[in-house]
């Protein structure tokens, strides 16, 4: 026995010496075996890039989401765990979960029991490890997550995930598009852009996941003194748009009201800055919610550039501009309205009989088709087509969006050139109309439209793309542009003008109405009667120096007796333009311009001394804290402010809330930043309500809810204008 045990001991000892000397066992390297057994890898998920408006306001981003999972298999609790890792009490668990997810207790209980008792006929030994609860168990709020965790329910897991967050609902949905999670062939899940900017800039928005390599025991706990190797995740690029969230909200609100009242087949609005070509707002109806895709139809096209329309009389604006540039326009010359014959084709004015012999100016104001025919005789139809192409029609604008269509300018026959002069036959896009009109609004300088302001790498804070305004070849002179604007203004203010409904309170408008026939399927015939037209308006304001350019169309609205197609179009245009101009601080006619004063530097000064100086300068000081020495101020020294503007002073100590009424959203955000309070903002525009009253002392963890309303909502609620003249009410 001694020899046997002694021999075994020597054999074991020799084996140990061999392994220690060679580092191998059974031909395998022991270090590699240990590494394979204990090495772990944790994925660090990258955020998809954010999309923001021109002021940095959020449009789309990744946010945390939680998914509920119930672990049913007893195997989860094996392996040394002191607390159960699977559901023990089904009744108690179902009752607790029913308080926080939209499912009844019995439904939750049945789902867990059915999963627990299920057996695969092909593999009876295999059991279901865990169960989920469908849509009811997804996107659980952070508040409910904390409450569920406090219950300490065995086997209940709350899996942290990322989801795409679209906080503004149907906001510019066909521009922004949407993204969704997909699995590749290897089962790896990632977020993919499927439409709009989310798809077009998917590569830029997609981040690169990082990872953490570490060593752990069999239960996943990190081994002591083990090193971690971290490769940081790289978030996707931030895309800053030219879109202005406030103006876009004016557009969305107005379209929602008009859609509810008139139920049109289609609507489109594009708002631009004519001096730069920046698109400030863009929307269409039908629309959809990017997060849920609710409302998404089989049409996935951005109507402003991917589809074409016959523009109708809005194109007369460019016929007029060409005639003025060529010195063929005589506003006081006369022509016979009613009808005009070219070869075997007869064109007629809208009322079929015309208005007798009238001047060309009156003809333009009345939107006479025959006036364009006689004007074309003076200008020359081929010269006219040259100008139409100079204005950019018939070719893509080159906007930074995909699938733009060029449209078709018909000029093979004289009759086609004639019908093009008043917007029939040839097709254009809304984006081409916007680009061409910038030349009229911008003193002859035509600007290329664009929607991407800049793209930034958030990991390095470097700008990878910075878009600047781009001029196009000028089709007309500044003098011509000015004359066209004056005539456009007369269509709104003139006694015989077709644009009277588009007048704004306090701002001069120049623009042109349009009523276009809609081709039937096949394109050989047109619909007629019963509102089967595309009604539009192309306008700018203030007409002397246009700051905004807006194109609106409404297709086939359901009109009541006494209503005309221009009614829904006017409600859109006037509501959007007045709200936007006031938001941009464009002073209405007749109002006095307030001189700005430079703010001094008050940091380091005593509060009492600073308040006196601020009030003496005509400003309104708001102190954050108890007073004493001023640490920070907003706005910073050197900023020009109008009399009565607010100046925030940050000091140490307890803060009492001010009266936020009338504050702008930007000022509330600045107060939030300096105070550190949990201020939650609903809406856009200016403050109308606050959840805690002035003078309340609050802590940093006590939320304050601030309600804002747009100028149009505020003016409408005050009833400051009769309903038929209420240009902000929609």
From TrEMBL:
Q: Entry's Pfam families?
A: PASTA, PBP_dimer, Transpeptidase
Q: Cellular location of this protein?
A: Membrane
Q: Where is the composition biased (Basic and acidic residues)?
A: 462-478
Major location (coarse): membrane
Q: Which UniProt keywords apply?
A: Membrane
Tell me which PROSITE patterns the record gives.
PASTA
Single Gene Ontology MF annotation: penicillin binding
Domain PASTA, chain residue ranges per copy: 593-653
Q: Which GO terms describe its biological process?
A: cell wall organization
Q: Looking at the record, which segments are called Disordered?
A: 458-478
Question: What's the family?
Answer: Belongs to the transpeptidase family.
Q: Which PANTHER family match?
A: PENICILLIN-BINDING PROTEIN 2B, PEPTIDOGLYCAN D,D-TRANSPEPTIDASE
Its recorded name reads Penicillin-binding protein 2B
In its UniProt entry, the species of origin is given as: Sporosarcina limicola
